[in-house]
Amino acid sequence: MYSEKVMDHFSxxxxxxxxxxxxxxxxxxxxxxxxxxxxxLKVENGIIQDVSFKTFGCGAAIATSSMATEMVKGKSLEExxxxxxxxxxxxxxxxxxxxxxxxxxxEEAIHAxxxxxxxxxA
Length: 122
Prior knowledge:
By secondary structure, the chain is α+β, with helices and mostly antiparallel strands. It has helices spanning about 5-10, 60-70, 75-80, 85-90, 100-120, and strands at about 25-30, 35-45, 45-55.
């Protein structure tokens, strides 16, 4: 059902936990399935220097959070905004159709954290 990459990111998630010096935080959730994702960004000079997440949800939610954070670390905010749920799914070698919403949440959480960062800089 799940690819090896999904299982790896679920069993050994990267970038887990609260980032104490985050200057952008985004929280999103899906009431239907109960998944909640919180992404923390540390941005310096427009570049994501560090990123972490805390996710309450299924294995696919954890795996997509892990992969999404890996994909945006070291990227500019503009590059990070281009990381789509499709790109996250492809990087994980796919998700079952009923778990696609997890990749959408991961994309939305990254966007919400960037939006929070930009709001705090204004």
